[in-house]
Structure formats: structure tokens, C-alpha cells
Amino acid sequence: MPTVVSLFSGCGGSDAGVLRAGFDVLMANDILPYARDVYLANHPETNYVLGDVSAIESFPSADLLVGCYPCQGFSQGGVRKADRKINTLYLEFARALRIVKPKAFIVENVSGMVRSNFEHLLKDQFKVFEEAGYRVKSQILNASHFGVAQDRKRIFIVGIHEKFGLDFTFPTATHGDGLKKVTTIRDAIGTLPEWPVGEFYDADFHWYYLSRNRRQDWDQISKTIVANPRHMPLHPISPTLEKMGPDKWQFTSNDRARRFSFREAAYLQGFGDLVFPETERASMNMKYTVVGNAVPPRLFEAVARSLPNIWD
Ligand SMILES: C[S@@+](CC[C@H](N)C(=O)[O-])C[C@H]1O[C@@H](n2cnc3c(N)ncnc32)[C@H](O)[C@@H]1O
User: Fold this and answer.
1) What whole-number distance in Å separates Cα of residue 29 and Cα of residue 49?
2) What pLDDT is recorded for position 119?
3) Where, by residue number, is the active site (predicted)?
4) Most buried pick, 85, 247, 250, 271, via CB within 10 A?
């Protein structure tokens, strides 16, 4: 089995993808204790190192290095500031790349990285990864095109060691127009309880929440699952929203509305029945955070499966 070192591993979305693609994860790392709790409750066999990646001096050698460094600096949800320190964690990934010397690597990040004010950071990532000896390609992929019940566009940066003389080719869509039927909200969560008490964030819908349409029907794909429960999309059991003006929407009835629960969010990310352990760090916010930060396993699996067979 080809081996993997995983960085910024969170609760294990990307790693569930590489496991499904037939890889063995030798080591995972994240700074967030509850992400480790969830990861280990679902994959107890992994050596999960908890702590700041910059404090890790040695890594095992492996065939593949994966990492989805944090994205707050680039994402729509976060403050978009190109100079934030959090935006340079890719340098830690590049440091690990030079130590591990894998045959290939996969990075995932928010698609906002292609915006012009971050272009220099994307270019710098290409530069440091190429200098480390890799042929690098990037592409934006939408999880819904790979059987995930969600509109989620993310950039993937993939490198293959230059000694193989190969360029990476990204997977093409398997689901959508003229292809397999997309996975809908109903397919993903249609059999779950309608009002799972204690599992959904039940605060008011603030004006900012109602500045756009947050609801999709059962037979559509979900809007993007985010890490902040305040901004979690609406469950289709909620009344529809109608547009009242620029950035202003309102419910069409007074029936009760609710956001997706953290468990539904996990299903909409394509995790299946993810175990959320009740450790001392467990809180509803934490459960939403680790799930919303994750990479949909099926999307990561599709990218990992598209790597050429360079493992022997
Ligand atoms: C986009 S999420 C990764 C999600 C993960 N790949 C998954 O699929 O579940 C980014 C992760 O980086 C972690 N992180 C942020 N700063 C870190 C640091 N200095 N060292 C290690 N992990 C860090 C965050 O806690 C977060 O879980």
C-alpha cells in the first residue's frame, strides 16, 4: 500500500478520501484538539500528532504528502487579508515536502486563492513547490461533480516529483449534466430525523444571514457547508425565502425554520455516519467547525485516484 503523511488533517475528511483510494496514513497532524478527537474516534489506528506543525521537526518518509492549510485568510467567510500570517502556513507544508520527499503531494484550499489580491501567494506556492523538485498543477473542482450533495468549489494543487517526468491530470466530473445523477440533499439526509434536538444551531436569523438565499430544496444540492454555525445553510424543512431587495430576503411563512445540524452537515460533506465523541472538548460549535473545515472525502479520493501509478 502506498503511504501518506497528512498535515492540517482536521477531523479527517481528506484522509478518509486517501484511505478510500487505497493509501495507508502513517501520520496525521492538527493543532485543534477536538479535530483529533473526532479523527481518532473514526480512525483509531492513525498516529495523530496534536500540535503546531511548525514545532514538528521530523516526519516519516512516505509516498504522498497531503495538506489543506487553513483558509481563513482567503475564504469568503473570513477577513480577506493577503498579509495575514495564517496565509503563509504553506511554507510549513513546503518544509515538510523537503523533509518527506514524497513521490507526489496534494493540497486543497478555498477557491478564493485565485483572486487577484492573493495571486502572489498562489504564485509563491507554485514557486516553493517547484523549487522543492515537483511539477505542479492546479485546478478548481466542485464536489457536486463527484457525487457530493453540495456546491463546494475548492482549488487543488497537485505536484508529482520531477524525476517521474509526468504532469498531473485532474479527474473529470462523474456527476451532473449528461453524467450520473447528482447526489441531492434528499439522497444524503432524507432519512434522518426532521428536528434533531440539540444537534442544530438555533439562534435567530440575523440580517446578514438573510442577505442572501440560504435554502435549497430536497431535490437540489446543498449550498456550501461552512465551519461557522451561524452561516450554516437552511434545512429544506424550512419555509422558502423570497427576495425583497438588494441583499434582503425573507421567509415566505412563519413556519419554523432551522439550519442543518452538524450531523447533517457531515452527511452533506459525504462522511456517512461520522462519530462525534463526547470528550471534554466537545461542543456544538466544535462539531460544526471540524465538519465545515473538512474536505469532502469523495472529492479528495477522486484526486488521489487520478495520480499516476508511481508507487512501486
Ligand atoms: C481546512 S482545515 C483542514 C481540514 C482537513 N484536511 C479535513 O479534511 O478534515 C485546516 C486545519 O488546519 C489546522 N491548523 C491551523 N493552524 C495550524 C498549525 N499551525 N499547525 C497545525 N494545524 C493547524 C486547523 O485546526 C484546521 O483543522
Assistant:
1) 5
2) 80
3) 71
4) 271
